[in-house]
Amino acid sequence: MILRTRLLGLLPHGLALFMSAVFLDSLRFKFTDHPNTQEIFGRLDGWAASLGLPGLFAHTGLFSQYVVGSVEFVASVLLLAGLLPRLRHLQAAGALAGLLVMSGAVNFHLFTPLGVDPNNDGGGLFVAACVNLAAAILMLTVFRRREFAILIQRVAAIFAPLKPAAVRS
From CA 80, how far away is CA 74, in angstroms rounded? Predict the structure, then answer.
């Protein structure tokens, strides 16, 4: 029983390490302008252009490979920093960033001309995105649920209107 509890306690760390490894591994393709990355983002940019949004996925676009790669890097740093007990809440932030990026990746694979096998790798890239998305969901809903709720409260507090100060007379 104690071993089972201990293993379950290590599972979020394993998820964080796995997610980070996938994100960090992809950076060598995104940040070096690898031909596979050019193909993927070029195909997405052509699709966006057909919708009247040319350049959205281009090198200087809002969703360029560099922007996506930067978010993946930040997610990795947060996930790895959250391995330390005092910084556990950062895993929730990293998982949220991973959830956002991987939601986009899965949706673009499914609902654009990109398809699930743009690199002719048997769909490995798509499967990695799905597994990372599932890991992020698991992290946020099971293992870091409390930290995620606190994160949401803190972000909501930023946007909450200020209460008027009591007037002294």
Answer: 10
